[in-house]
Write a structure and sequence with these properties.
The chain contains 11 helices and 9 strands. The chain is an alpha+beta fold.
Length: 385
């Protein structure tokens, strides 16, 4: 693939074959049926606090830099270094708390892994990093070398949390190499310069993921530092570990929705219909736990020896979790009826957020991409079941 074929390095890295990109609290994460009811989460009650981090369970859900800093400071291990299962369990926990929060905090931990892979300095205390890598068709962000470094000019869409985060890893078109390249930007410094990095007015109209405050960033000679060589960001095995990390956030949201059904069954006793749906939801959760556990073990064992192998793993994990999300949303809705969607603000918001977030998986297009990869590997004798 060439740099021009890449469309979005976090959720749709290949324009042609549409590939894209999980929360729980145990150090031994993916155990079956850990559907935990927490006060205020999925029940419409007051907010809860874990590890000193307050989480709002109902509107308003305004996120602040202080909240992001608290979640960014959690111990989230780097992937592929022996504690990958714990990493993905932590991301699942964040998604279980609040999917819009996960949309802003997961990229910080992804940025830490990217910087480690590409030789950059780790995020410092108090910093909150974003990763903005969407490259839709049309004019985008250009990177040019100047006398005292690099500058970014143009518009960068889909910048979640741009009004809050302190730093960002941003993809831009490197004019010199004619390829996509990753750059680090100190947003605090650029804001102080005035008019160099300007947020455009919000255009997000849907309720789902609205709290992530996703905007377009207009850049004019914004100072930036290259991170890795052109193409290095998406060529890493770690890119696909990051893709699984997003699926871990989806799983957190799935657990939150599923908890509403479990809560109903526990309080009033399950009818035959409720019991059937609850059993099917439990099986869906177990499937997600299983594929994440296998993927984590393989990552830590060094079995992802190439980006292609890691991508096959990631595509399969993401497809499994995305299918489980759609099943759980449907079953919980059919089992409980409209009541929770109109009377339980936390549940209604979680459902809306999850419906949007999981669309970072591109359904049949991503399945076709996985099938194509497997067929190519099988033709070389590299894939077998």
């Amino acid at each position: 693939m060439t740099g021009s074929e890449r469309a979005c390095a976090r959720c749709r890295p290949w324009r042609r074959s549409a590939a894209s990109r999980f929360t729980q609290c145990s150090p031994t994460p993916h155990l079956p049926l850990r559907l935990t009811i927490r006060p205020g989460v999925g029940t419409g009650g007051p907010g809860w606090v874990r590890g000193g981090v307050p989480v709002a369970a109902a509107e308003p859900r305004a996120l602040s830099l202080e909240v992001l800093q608290a979640w960014a400071a959690r111990d989230v291990p780097l992937p592929g270094r022996g504690r990958t299962a714990q990493r993905w369990a932590e991301l699942t926990e964040i998604g279980r708390a609040d999917l819009a929060l996960a949309k802003l905090v997961e990229p910080h931990h992804d940025a830490a892994a990217i910087l480690a892979d590409l030789g950059g300095p780790p995020p410092a205390g108090g910093e909150v990093w974003a990763v903005w890598a969407a490259e839709p068709p049309g004019a985008g962000l250009r990177a040019e070398a100047v006398a005292d470094g690099w500058q970014l000019t143009g518009r960068k869409p889909f910048c979640s949390g741009a009004a809050l985060v302190t730093h960002a890893l941003v993809t831009a078109h490197d004019v010199r190499s004619d390829a996509s390249r990753l750059f680090a930007v100190d947003l605090r410094a650029e804001r102080d310069r005035g008019g160099r990095a300007v947020l455009e007015a919000p255009t997000w109209v849907g309720a789902g993921m609205a709290a992530a405050d996703t905007r377009t960033l207009a850049c004019s000679a914004v100072r930036a530092t290259p991170v890795g060589e052109p193409g290095a960001y998406t060529d890493r095995v770690g890119f696909w570990h990051g893709a699984i990390g997003v699926a871990a956030c989806w799983l957190g949201g799935l657990r939150g929705v599923a908890a509403r059904l479990l809560d109903r069954a526990g309080r009033s006793g399950p009818s035959e219909l409720i019991a059937m749906h609850l059993g099917a939801v439990a099986a869906a959760v177990h499937r997600c736990d299983a594929v994440l556990a296998v993927a984590a073990a393989r990552a830590d064992a060094g079995e992802h020896t190439s980006s292609e192998i890691a991508r096959c793993e990631a595509e399969a994990v993401r497809a499994t979790v995305a299918a489980a999300v759609e099943e759980v949303l449907s079953r919980v809705g059919r089992a409980l009826g409209p009541g929770p969607l109109v009377a339980d603000a936390a549940h209604a918001q979680r459902v809306a957020d999850l419906q949007v977030f999981v669309r970072q998986h591109h359904a049949e297009a991503d399945l076709a991409a996985l099938g194509t990869l497997l067929a190519e590997r099988a033709a070389r004798g590299d894939a077998r079941w």
